[in-house]
Amino acid sequence: MTAETTAGPVLVLLDHTAEGVLRTPVRELLTLARTLAGESGVEGAWAGELPAAAIDDLGRLGVRRVHRLVTDADPHLTAVLAEAVEQARSAVGAPLVLLVSSFENKEVAARLAVTTGAGVVTDADALVVEGGQVVAGKTVFAGTWTTRCAVTAPVAVVTVKPNTVTAADAETASSPEVVEHTVAASGRARRVALVERTERAGSGRPDLGSAHVVVVGGRGTNGDFSAVEELADVLGGAVGATRVATDEGWIGHDAQIGQTGVTIAPRLYVGAGVSGAVHHRGGMQASGTIVAVNSDADAPIFEIADLGIVGDLFTVLPQAVAELRRLQG
Amino acid sequence: MRIVVCVKHVPDIQSDRTLGADGRTVRDGGDGTLNELDENALEAALTLVEAHGGEVVALTVGPDDAVDAVRKGLQMGAEQAVHVVDEQIAGSDVLGTATVLAAAVRHIAAQGPVDLVVTGMAGLDGLTSVLPTALAELLDLPALLLAREVDIDGTTVTIRRDLDHASEVLRAELPALLSVTDQANEARYPNFKGIMAARKKPVTTLTLADLGVDPATVGSVGARTQVLEAAARPPREDRVLITDDGTAGVRLAAYLVEHKLV
Fold this sequence. Notes:
The complex is a heterodimer.
Chain A: E1 10-13, H1 24-37, E2 42-47, H2 52-60, E3 63-71, H3 78-92, E4 96-100, H4 103-116, E5 119-124, E6 126-130, E7 133-140, E8 145-151, E9 156-160, E10 177-183, E11 193-199, E12 213-217, H5 226-235, E13 238-241, H6 243-247, E14 268-272, H7 278-281, E15 289-294, E16 307-310, H8 313-328
Parallel strand pairs in A: 1-2, 1-4, 2-3, 3-10, 4-9, 5-9, 12-13, 12-14, 14-15, 15-16
Antiparallel strand pairs in A: 6-7, 7-8
Helix pairs in contact in A: 3-4, 5-8
Chain B: E1 2-6, E2 9-11, E3 32-34, H1 36-52, E4 55-61, H2 67-76, E5 80-84, H3 94-110, E6 116-120, H4 131-139, E7 143-147, E8 149-153, E9 156-162, E10 166-173, E11 176-180, H5 192-198, E12 203-206, H6 208-211, H7 219-222, E13 225-232, E14 240-243, H8 248-258
Parallel strand pairs in B: 1-4, 1-6, 4-5, 5-12, 6-11, 7-11
Antiparallel strand pairs in B: 2-3, 8-9, 9-10
Pfam family, one (chain B): ETF
Subunit structure (chain B): Heterodimer of an alpha and a beta subunit.
Keywords (chain B): Electron transport, Transport
């Protein structure tokens, strides 16, 4: 690793649950950050209570220092969080800030870019340093085009999509130093009030946005998601849905895959009774392997499926589940 | 209440969308359209004005064709439109675009106070979704983003939004910036009367000089990111299409095992 292929210190925003458990996509991001930081090391920014177990976890992932952000306003407000992250970034002198792609993190990234003059790239699905410059890969136009985009400003802020790399512990674990930053939120950041925040209860299945396997039900399920759920469970995957299925009320809107819902790029996507409308494809076309089961041989999803099965999902899926259970013993 | 709605002219999502060798969207085809998600922004603004009085100004930045986007806004019910067009804007990154939009909103505000700036949740071409935040920051406005419900009571605006792991209710005092999702409403179709009326509504065309924007801060010159390469994704290889003969489920399981996906 030389200065040409490493960025210097990299600051990663550490998304965690209300209980202080690191979220899966951050583990991937820290794995990626280690390759970009080189000798300089990875720094983490953590808002809220920091349990000892989380510090050990961050050590296994090779984090050199954890910057604990103690804010006098709710850090769920993205303007408050952006100011706190900037305080840690400038203390470290990090030329690169990485965040997991989520709606709120993109707000944080945009604010950082405006206030610091940084260049911002969102939803990157690849990231390298070339000739001292941060270069991000990104798919556009519903996953039909790939671009490579260099940040030409001295500071780069990049949000990275889940499943971009496989999470792995560092070769040598570290014992992260914890640095506390007391952050007074500005009057500007306080202009938005968080009246209410309701954490969504987990389904027991992996998070849709970061799952390695996603099984999606569409119009063809006619509202019966049992076959979809069974296949998801045998594959250890998440359950998603098309806009039609959520609009019909068959499943919550938070399960909607598509350009205006959750964008996914799992290793395996299985669409059951999904026609593959352009808005849906925009949210899943970057998936690794695409399997589609649909009774309509003309469904557009077959144009992009690695394995397409023209058939009834209510016979094909249960048979696949039985066979997978048999193989798993 | 005076509301500025920022709309964008994008290549039609149903058409073959293309990037040029310079990484910019090819916008010379005849397939451009109003960004679908901006229709929800216009609808939200028109609904608010219908309830609270006032007017909607549709604003766009882009080449000559982009005027079609604000025309659609006028047909839906906006009172006037502003189109910023200048060759020096070409190649702007999202922050450059936000800089131009911010200057245009200030220009509109100079003729009468602006209470609310509304945008769609994202552009369906680049899907950056960074623009609303950057615009709010540049205009020094509180940002209430991704609203699926909007409520204005006096000078207080309250929104409800759904994030990946939580739902939130956010509140701020006007003036403010708002972005709405496609869940927020069902956008109206312009009727014949609206289409006829739109022909008489004013469209103001402005340049960077009119707005007092330094060309060095926008366009490819001012961009902090640069597209190095752009390529259409190659089609997937070795695709298999089978018709269920009674064994498709077993074959699906075998495929997943063979490709190490279980």
